[in-house]
Amino acid sequence: MNQQLLSLAIWLPILGAVPVFWAGSDRRDLVRWLALAVAVAGFLVTIPLYTGFDPKIAGMQFVEQAPWIPRFNVQYFLGVDGISMPFILLNSLITVMVVLAGWEVIEEKQAQYMGAFLVMSGLMNGIFSALDGVLFYVFFEASLIPMYIIIGVWGGPNRVYAAIKFFLYTLLGSLLMLVALIWLFLEARGSFNILDWHQLQIGMKPQILIFIAFLVSFAVKVPMWPVHTWLPDAHVEAPTGGSVVLAAIALKLGAYGFVRFSLPIVPDAAHYMANFMITLSLIAVVYIGFVALVQTDMKKLIAYSSISHMGFVTLGFFIFNQIGIEGALVQMISHGFISAAMFLCVGVMYDRMHSRQIADYGGVVHTMPKFAALFVFFAMANSGLPATSGFVGEFMVILGAIKANFWLGFLAATTLILGAAYTLWMIKRVVFGAVGNAHVAEMQDISGREFLVLGLLAVCVLAMGLYPFPFTEVMHASVDNLLKHVAVSKL
Amino acid sequence: MLNNFVMPDLYPAAPEIFLLLMSFLVLFVDLIFGATHRWMAAMLTAVTLLGAALITLVTSDPQPVLTFSGMFVDDMLADFLKLMTYFAVLMMLVYSRQYLADRGLDKGEFYLLVIYATLGMMIMISAANFLTMYLGLELMSLSLYGLVAIDRNSTRCTEAAMKYFVLGALASGLLLYGMSMVYGATGSLELGGVAQALYQGQTEKTVLVFGLVFIVAGIAFKLGLVPFHMWIPDVYHGAPTAVTMFIGSAPKLAAFAMALRLLVYGMLGLATDWQKMLMVMAVLSIALGNLAAIAQTNIKRMLAYSAISHMGYMVLGLMSGVVAGKIDPFTATNAYSSALYYTVAYVLMSLGAFGAVLLLSRAGYEAENLEDFKGLNKRSPWFAAMMLIMMFSMAGIPFFIGFFAKFAVLLAAIKAGYVTVAVIAVMFSLIGAFYYLRVVKLMYFDAPVDSAPITAGLDVRVLFSLNGLAVAGLGLFPNEVMMLCTTALLRSV
Hints:
The complex is a heterodimer.
Chain A: H1 5-23, H2 28-44, H3 47-51, E1 61-69, E2 74-80, H4 85-101, H5 110-129, H6 133-142, H7 144-154, H8 159-187, H9 194-198, H10 204-221, H11 230-237, H12 240-265, H13 267-272, H14 274-293, H15 298-317, H16 322-353, H17 364-367, H18 369-382, H19 389-404, H20 406-430, H21 438-441, H22 448-466, H23 469-487
Antiparallel strand pairs in A: 1-2
Helix pairs in contact in A: 1-2, 1-5, 2-4, 2-5, 4-5, 4-12, 4-16, 5-6, 5-7, 5-12, 6-8, 7-8, 8-10, 8-11, 10-12, 11-15, 12-15, 12-16, 14-15, 14-20, 15-16, 15-19, 15-20, 16-18, 16-19, 16-22, 16-23, 18-20, 18-22, 19-20, 19-22
Chain B: H1 14-33, H2 39-58, E1 65-67, E2 72-74, H3 76-102, H4 108-126, H5 130-148, H6 155-186, H7 191-200, H8 205-223, H9 231-238, H10 241-247, H11 250-266, H12 271-294, H13 299-318, E3 322-323, E4 326-327, H14 329-360, H15 376-379, H16 381-395, H17 401-415, H18 419-445, H19 458-476, H20 479-490
Antiparallel strand pairs in B: 1-2, 3-4
Helix pairs in contact in B: 1-2, 1-4, 2-3, 2-4, 3-4, 3-10, 3-11, 3-14, 3-19, 3-20, 4-5, 4-11, 5-6, 6-8, 6-9, 7-11, 8-11, 8-12, 9-10, 9-13, 10-14, 11-14, 12-13, 12-18, 13-14, 13-17, 13-18, 14-16, 14-17, 14-19, 14-20, 16-18, 16-19, 17-18, 17-19
């Protein structure tokens, strides 16, 4: 049983989606409970991944290896280390939240909605656990299909544009990556095994080309400035659930790609390009922070805030020290919780008012006190308040940056001010003050179901902020190993 | 003189002979029962194809066998391609049964022409001599011209057939001219003899290359490569959808066989010359096919341009067998089997895509505009999902067979050192993804304009579902078909 845990985490949601599709959209109760059951089961099977994980081992655990396409020596090769394991748990947890969030709001074709999220959840787990280049690529690209459908079918008025932009932008990156993967396969004398690639000796010029091919792919996904423009569109148009999965999981794929591919396979190119990457990251942190400040649409504001926070993650990776990389990983998980919660909060308000404009709100605290408390809490976490998870990651990355260069850390630290500025200013205008208009006065406070979802996330954010040790503990050995590996030249 | 005559071994050509004999039977049956029992000709054609499949399997020999004084070859590659051809033709027959009946096109001529076109393809597949190749090609082409014009009251069909005929005749002429040049230079019409002569190297290079250019042009016409692609959009658009489906599927297999036999088995010695020609044509086809498809509003035309680009990708595999003038058997098998795999995958997807058009068509109504796919998800989620699979597969998105076809071809190209070409190819497939995405957008994101229920019969429904599931299933487990392609190539002459 222990041997097939990862397969279970991948295929249980995907196969579980079949009866959900089958139930059809007319039987809403059946569809919803079925989807919830599958999502919860999908989460439960990932728990042993954490409990059975040995934090002292730097290598891959829960490994599954079987031939898939012997013709090209492609293997069905799965495994997780301390870097990827937490994301599988995060992803499976978020799927449960998404199913709950779409419980009543989605009225049209609910079966397809729920099914698409379950399929995507399985595919995402596949991306995080694949250790074969082709297997990784296949999951990576296939996950575009459900997202495309989700944005396009249940999205806002400009959904078609956003969906196609999302798809083509991401495809652009991944196609170049495919060429790089095939090149590595030939270079490795017919192996798609990512762990083999980590040992490969590659010259400087090909290293840089491969780095760029991966960079295009992952930078679009993260997204890094200047290829971030699809994200605000996709976020604004996507239904709440879509935004949540995009922000909490999909953005992490790009960052994960850097640590799994770029850094260990082409370390010399990574060092060579580090200043360039750091510059891009800082632009994302500072410039996008200012862009977020002037947004009038709440979802857009959170989208830009996501880009800014992800800038922190890429910054952490490319300063090449332990605390920086661990901080970036913590930041990724923490951002997964916080951004999911922020989008869910906006979703809660949107379901009642059908507006995402900040100007349409005001004084929400008077009509929805329970909700306001949670929303303010998540906003604090988003701006990096100590004792929330948002603080831990940012603090670690800033610490790492200062170790590398004082001014780097100084610039990165401006995010603490900017982040607080745009988030809290939005909160001030939306939550506090006098009741804005008659519509706000009629708003109902959150239901038990919504409270459950947001409350659960709040617990996660708080727990991670107060006691991050269980999260960092599993990463130590793997990050250590990664750093040792990156420090050795492959020329 | 008659004393020298030796009765050729007919055994390797048994499927062809069977098909020919059965065609007479179909003719007679149609003559007698055609007016009252139209289904008989269709049934008999299906039985013929199944019978031919059985004979091909039974007479299959792991070793290549030459017969008719070395003009005809029966090897594993031929058997594999023939089986795929029967399979594609059978699928076409099932898909189009109702469509033809609704339009009064299910005449005996239709089935007869289909049998003769199939016979032509089989001869092309088994050709080991320039003349056999030409014979098969003409038999196939003339039958196809007739099929395009089968709806003789439609001016659109007649126009398409005319265009097809004129351009096709020109291409045949080019091919024949090229063959005569090569014959002049090498003194042999047999592909083996040509290869031998080229290997010994005592030939006039100028004449050879001159002839080669014409032969490549003829092949490019049949494959529909830019700049010999002009007929494809018009014929695909003008022909009745059932015939379009036929032209868009099985003949691609025959054209692949023609390219492989002529260029690889016959003229491998000139590989460095034809490689360059194929590379230019492949890149142009991928570029133009994908760009032009965006502008189309008619799905048959869109699929026509998509066919052009797909054949470009296939040729990418075909040209990657010889690296820097050196022939390494391992690399070569890899490359040719990737092209073969691409062709097989494409035929399967093409049948499915045209199958969707037939599925949505009904008596007096052709669902050939992109608009007709609007809101399909509301009308039938299942068929929308199948079409979604088909479109994403054509766009080369995993887990579908189309991705692995592109993957294999790209791998071959990169291995042969064509990294730049591979990058260009994937960039254009990004552009190509747009128009496939648009079909998915119409089906899923838009409201239906046509709310009439889908009236297609059970046979079409089941076949379309199986086709979609096959495209998905063979994407999840691509190894078996890949291996089959490789084995077939390894066991060929």
